[in-house]
Amino acid sequence: MSGSEALSPVPTVALGSQRFALVPSTNLLSNQNYFRLFTRRFTKLQVLMPGETAAPGTASGKTGTPDQQTAGAAFNVTVNAVDANWNPAPYASDHTIHITSSDGGATLPPDAFLTGGTATFSVTLTAGTATVTASDITDATKTANTGSSTTVNP
User: Fold this and answer.
1) How far is CA 98 from each of CA 63, 87, 121, 137, 139, rounded to the nearest angstrom?
2) 61 and 14 part of one domain
3) Same structural domain for residues 88 and 120?
4) How far apart are CA 83 and CA 152, in angstroms?
5) What is the pLDDT of residue 73?
6) Are residues 135 and 87 in the same domain?
7) Could you state, in chain order, the average pLDDT of each consecutive group of 10 residues for the chain (154 residues)?
């Protein structure tokens, strides 16, 4: 069993800001100890544009292609707290997220908190091709993330 596998059917325990999973010994290989402790530590942010979905354990942490957007029309961007392998860190809350864009004319949302490790932001772009970046202003040690380049139609 690798550290990037989903632990949804496995009971988890929160201790402070860390989350631990209890894995039955039947899920371990014969050369492993009776248990293994997995830590899903919130290390970075993930920006998902419309048309993309989270894909933990992959190189980019997501799959899909961003939908084209219409200039001047608002759309939602999802920001997730994740670990180093793009697994969700749903215990991450009360971190303030700031949104920026490569589109100088973009209408951007105010800063907002992660709740349950996620937040949704309404963004309006103007034209061309643009990106959206999320930064954690509560804890600068969390790596910012820039969403996939998105085409904006007039």
Assistant:
1) 24, 21, 10, 7, 11
2) no
3) yes
4) 30
5) 97
6) yes
7) 49 71 68 60 96 96 97 98 94 92 97 96 96 97 96 94
Structural tokens at position 124: 């309006």
Same domain flag for 32 and 92: no
What is the token pair recorded at 56? 């933990």
- The domain of 129 spans 44-153
User: Whole-prediction pTM value?
Assistant: 0.76
Distances (CA, A) of 147 to 7, 26, 63: 26, 39, 12
Residue 131, Cβ density class (10 Å: 0-12 exposed, 13-18 middle, ≥19 buried): middle
Number of domains comprising the chain: 2
Residue 37 confidence (pLDDT): 59
Degrees, nearest 5: CA angle 49-53-111: 45
The two tokens of residue 123 are 């963004």
Q: What is the CATH number of the domain that holds 57?
A: 2.60.40.10
Instruction: Give the pLDDT confidence score for residue 19 in this predicted structure.
Output: 72
- pLDDT for 34 equals 55
What are phi and psi for residue 104, nearest 5 degrees?
-60, -20
- Given a contact cutoff of 8 angstroms between Cβ atoms, the answer to whether 61 and 48 are in contact is no
